[in-house]
Amino acid sequence: MRLADEPCPCSSGQRYAECCMPIHEGEDAVTAEALMRSRYSAFALQLESHLMRSWHPRTRPEPPLISPGTTWQRLEVLDTVDGGADDEDGIVEFRAHGVQDGEVFVMQERSRFVRRARRWVYLDGEVH
Question: The pTM is what?
Fold first, then answer.
């Protein structure tokens, strides 16, 4: 089966081709949550170029951004505040489940997103 036909890594319930793949290929995310989901999928699929492109240049760290020993398993969106098609900023809180070097972990973050040149970008986040 081709990756496009498989379930999207972001746990949306949609096929990858209908969910995060278009954003990975350059389409604008319509909402902050859609961008957050695409970033989670980029970590899962090791698409560092998308992570760099979708991170605000003021807060973006130097690569590498992807840890080779990490496998991402599931995403839960816990809360969204603003971040809609007509908003200029938004917040998405999520839990990301994964395995790193054989150890299961859960990371919870409240992420801030802003529009930059009319495109959503990740600004920063508070890890809980």
Answer: 0.96
